[in-house]
Inverse folding.
């Protein structure tokens, strides 16, 4: 318990009456005669010997740390993702080095460069940086954006989610749909939410409008759009699919303020599956991302034997959940 | 950029045409003649030399990592705290090793023991484990619970917060107050929320009731308590102070379901300052914890020169914010 008491493998060898090589084998889980195993175990226990992870990392050229790069933790979707990744890593005796960037490109790149010094065993990142360079020797997984052929992109099935949202609204009686998004203009996986939505509306012959703003836009621009479509206290659209739950939450607040009844007059579906306080009520009716599975799959990928061929893209199934902003 | 290209200090020395000692001095910010400094800098740049943090950690007997131990990240208060700690560490070029425990005592202790192997520069933890042992050589800060005289406890001013909540409710016209809490029965800083509340009610001569349940209790027990105090559609209490915003959110939902109007008939104040999606509307009227400052103070404490005497307890000021569940 005292950091000054430096117990080394040599001390363990002396105490156990075995060679240094035997101690090394036991510590690295290489089989030795049972008698030696027991003697080393007893000596480790008696002396309170800790494996020096740094010496081990230097020897192995990698540590038990995995770098996780996210924009922030105040957005509940990112918090849930970090929570699940941290648990998935812990289940495999790895630890999470968390880096928050607020999507600042320079900071993202600086952290990625740090990964070499940190000798991390892998990188899991969520970034919209178009020029991000990831060192080729480090296994990496990107959430929601394709970073190139060497890095697996893990995401929810955004296309199916968009389709599902449109179909649900149509099934619930909506006849004039709108899709609303504020997001990066870089090509990314979440674009498919719109593509699936458009496909389902087109197939059903239902008129629709897509209002897509760049991520520099503020919600007041969405308010202007909605205001321009309110006539005699009625919104021109009776069903809205929002690209995130945050947007759905903001649209709901705006419509309620403007005395437009949700879900009676307008039904809203978000995307993500955010719950109040993490595990309370859903914020809105929503397409739920399988965050726990996305985390587990990402962790398994970066820790898998690198000689295995890994897929370029993994899309995990979503489901609709009613959270009060749709009739059903 | 390639992990296989092992550039060492020796390579840098050869390239710069200086001794190994000079390179070491430059890397450790020890002054050398400007000419040597420039030659080493140029060689470092040319060869793409990275300081090997693990070798450095072994030499210094500590790393640039700080262990942060929290119950989870799905609770938005913990997510905010982790977010702020991570940024405060990054501002000082330290990184956060995050460990989540769901308040499991064994896991908390196991992670603390890991801190020695990880050679962390400090520990910031939020735990209610009564028997937690923290290695004496590692600077540690505990959030919200006193772990003993060697470990500074950083918290919001819980007592002042409790007083503030009661005073605000009384000022807003409430005449029958209740305090509701589900929490650890271990003595801890958050007990003072109740103490301050009781003091303010007593001073004002306002009748009050405290309903405090152990953390094994579920919200249905609070529902039973509230139900037993609803007569002819009216609650016996016209002002409720909840020990957390989560509880306030749950009480609000229960009263609304039971057609009791908030804030008209009953006013509710929570504690924490949780906002929807981290930065949107407050969940309820609340006593806001200065989370950013708590994080910054905690980080500064563990990274401060350990020869300085550190205070046993630091309590940071709170403030009331109206979030729709009080009249004012």
């Amino acid at each position: 318990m005292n950091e000054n008491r430096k117990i080394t493998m040599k001390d363990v060898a002396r105490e156990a009456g075995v060679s240094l090589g035997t101690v090394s084998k036991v510590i690295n889980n290489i089989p030795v005669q049972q008698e030696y195993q027991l003697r080393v175990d007893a000596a480790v226990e008696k002396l309170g010997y800790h494996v020096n992870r740094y010496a081990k990392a230097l020897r192995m050229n990698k540590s038990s740390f995995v770098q996780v790069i996210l924009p922030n933790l105040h957005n509940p979707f990112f918090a849930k993702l970090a929570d699940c990744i941290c648990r998935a890593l812990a289940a495999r005796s790895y630890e999470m080095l968390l880096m928050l960037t607020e999507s600042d490109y320079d900071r993202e790149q600086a952290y990625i460069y740090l990964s070499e010094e940190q000798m991390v065993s892998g990188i899991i990142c969520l970034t919209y940086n178009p020029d991000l360079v990831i060192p080729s020797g480090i296994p990496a997984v990107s959430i929601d954006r394709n970073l190139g052929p060497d890095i697996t992109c893990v995401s929810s099935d955004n296309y199916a989610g968009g389709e599902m949202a449109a179909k649900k609204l149509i099934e619930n009686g909506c006849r004039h749909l709108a899709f609303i998004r504020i997001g990066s203009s870089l090509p990314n996986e979440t674009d498919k939410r719109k593509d699936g939505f458009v496909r389902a509306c087109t197939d059903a012959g239902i008129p629709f409008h897509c209002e897509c703003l760049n991520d520099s836009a503020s919600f007041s621009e969405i308010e202007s759009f909605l205001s321009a479509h309110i006539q005699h206290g009625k919104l021109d659209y009776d069903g809205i699919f929002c690209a995130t739950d945050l947007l759905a939450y903001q649209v709901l607040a705006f419509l309620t303020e403007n005395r437009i009844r949700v879900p009676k007059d307008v039904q809203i579906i978000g995307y993500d599956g955010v719950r109040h306080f993490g595990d309370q009520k859903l914020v809105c009716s929503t397409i739920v991302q399988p965050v726990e599975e996305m985390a587990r799959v990402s962790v398994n990928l970066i820790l898998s034997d690198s000689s295995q061929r890994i897929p370029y893209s993994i899309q995990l199934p979503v489901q609709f959940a009613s959270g009060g902003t749709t009739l059903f």
